[in-house]
């Protein structure tokens, strides 16, 4: 397994996000366009891509949210690689990078229909919070937060 820190210009990241969007078009249905407007990758400067035998198999990113926190975006693992720890490595690397940049928390939004994602985030120390920003009042959205220990 190889982990690469990059940005949104990375072709492997772009290709993984295209597969993520195809998956979300199905699971989000009519709500996909609403969510999609907040998921542009063009300006993401903090992107992780994980490779297995030179194949890009998982990705994730963050962007600054406020002075003390980042918002995790575009987490995805190819279906045939799920359950093998790739997503966990992505989230750990994103959290470490955020800590290195001085951020003390990560927040994120996922959909209620993304059962695997909800379980994954809870298993990795994220707790549900009130919906924030554009997700306030959106019934299908679940928002989560994790405080980062910046001393480690």
Explain this structure.
By secondary structure, the chain is of the alpha+beta class. It is built from 4 helices and 7 strands. The protein has helices at residues 11-28, 32-36, 86-100, 115-123; strands at 2-6, 46-52, 55-66, 69-77, 105-111, 127-129, 141-147. It has a 7-stranded mixed sheet with strand order 1-2-3-4-5-7-6, with helices on both faces. A hairpin with a 2-residue loop joins strand 2 (46-52) and strand 3.
Descriptive labels:
152 residues; alpha+beta; 7-stranded mixed β-sheet; 4 helices; 31% helix; globular
Low-confidence stretches: none
Largest sheet: 7 strands, mixed
Quaternary arrangement of the chains shown?
Answer: single chain
Radius of gyration, in angstroms, nearest whole number: 14 Å
What is the H-and-E element order? EHHEEEHEHEE
Write the layout of secondary structure elements.
Elements: E1 2-6, H1 11-28, H2 32-36, E2 46-52, E3 55-66, E4 69-77, H3 86-100, E5 105-111, H4 115-123, E6 127-129, E7 141-147
Short description:
By secondary structure, the chain is an alpha+beta fold. It has helices spanning 11-28, 32-36, 86-100, 115-123, and strands spanning 2-6, 46-52, 55-66, 69-77, 105-111, 127-129, 141-147.
